[in-house]
Amino acid sequence: MKPNYRLMVLAIVILFATACSPAALPAPTQPPPTQPPPALPPPTEPPPTLTPLPPTEPPPPPTATASPAPSATATVVPSATPVVAATPAITEYVKLDDITMYYAAYGEGEPLLLLHGMLGSGDNFEKQVPEFAQYYRVITPDSRGQGRSTDSDAPLSYHLMAEDMVRLMDHLKLDSAYIVGWSDGGNIGLDMAIHHPERVRALVTYGANTSPKGLTPSAISFFRDSALETLQFRLGAEYLRLSATPDRLPAMIEQARQMALNEPNFTKDELAGITSPTLIADGSWEQVIDLNHVKAIARAIPGAELLLIPGADHYAPAAKPVEFNKTVLDFLKDK
């Protein structure tokens, strides 16, 4: 029997087609899947949130009924200033002519009066008292109408406040004292040295001026142009904290404004007549008093020393107490 070549060829074609069909081909090898990055470690627990302490309630404005009754007898009490609470203090309200003046006294030795600035109080020297009281009997009065001291109908002036300090010295039976004045306190000290030279054993002023023209232009603008409410906000905190008559703040602010714009007016002859050893101190960054004016004061007072604390501004007793304290103590030593 002869082979059927036609059928054989057909069979071969069919077999070849079947072998090459997609279903018969092996599935292509898939590339290995990309491995995911290793799992990050679980986040650490955040530190526990600190619960802030509730804000301290501001002290209520003092009232006349809540204030200690003025007394002419000194009583030994703890200081009301926390920073100097560890230093025994004598505090007293003393009647001085038309006002009642508050003061505190610390330590023993030769008397040293610390005179504060505009609308401040003796408490402003909290960073000076602990150190100064190691060497002196430190007395921190509140000027009339400021702090805890009362006001009167008399217009506020540097001379009037200087006379108050002399009357306080009379009450305390002090023939003389070291006087250290900051800002307005320095002006009061200069007035005392001019009109009562025998009462001023030595004088240190910081940030003082002898004329309204000694203020910087920005300080003049502040006092001249600021709304009364602005001045109350910027200057009134100490008054509201301590005064028995907080409702008088607007009147006190206006008096302070007028005083700053019109006083002091010490003459060259008055400054030349100062005989007390005097240090005119200030900061190299003073922003309230023109430094050329400060230097002129030192030149006008015979034998006065001039010292500018590097990097200090008008508020060095509070902001740079180490430098300020050293300046004062170094000068007063041996005076």
Salient structural properties:
335 residues, alpha/beta, single chain, Rossmann fold, 34% helix
The dominant shape is globular
Instruction: Report helical residue fraction.
Output: 25-40%
CATH superfamily: Alpha/Beta hydrolase fold, catalytic domain
Please state the structural category. Answer: alpha/beta
C-alpha termini separation: 152 Å
CATH topology, anyone?
A: Rossmann fold
- The overall average pLDDT, rounded, is 82
Number of domain modules? 1
The CATH class label is Alpha Beta
What can you tell me about this protein's structure?
This protein is an alpha/beta fold. It has one domain (75-330): Rossmann fold (3-Layer(aba) Sandwich). Helix content is 34%, strand content 16%. The chain contains twelve helices and nine strands. The protein has helices spanning 5-19, 129-132, 158-171, 184-195, 217-225, 228-235, 237-242, 249-262, 268-272, 291-300, 316-319, 321-332; strands at 75-77, 89-96, 99-106, 111-115, 137-141, 177-182, 200-206, 278-283, 305-309. The chain has a nine-stranded mixed beta sheet with strand order 1-2-3-5-4-6-7-8-9, with helices on both faces. Helix 4 (184-195) links the parallel strand 6 (177-182) and strand 7 (200-206). The longest helix has 15 residues, at 5-19. Residues 1-83 have low confidence and may be disordered.
